[in-house]
Specification:
Layout: H1 4-15, H2 21-49, H3 58-80
Length: about 100
Amino acid sequence: MTVVPVAMDQVGRFAGPRPSGAYYGALATAGGIAVLLGSLAIGPFLDGARRAEPGAGTAWWLMALFPAISAVVLAVLFHRARPRTADDQPPDPLPTPTRNGHP
């Protein structure tokens, strides 16, 4: 739920002026594949999570592992990113409105 708005914004930027329907379809397909793989990896452990036994927490640890790995990957990616300087900042998209030549 937290990734979808950012991903939708990135699809629009990635597609540029081209039609974006195929890009949104690829995003939905990637999401479906992620859910399928997650279910295949965690599903067998969920039955054990219903009973009080030594391996009951395995499914929950696996589900916590995926966001933790994502956080580490994002931290590494952002750490490698070049910091922006004042010269790199984009111009203000909306100029100050004027009336009779005065702001």
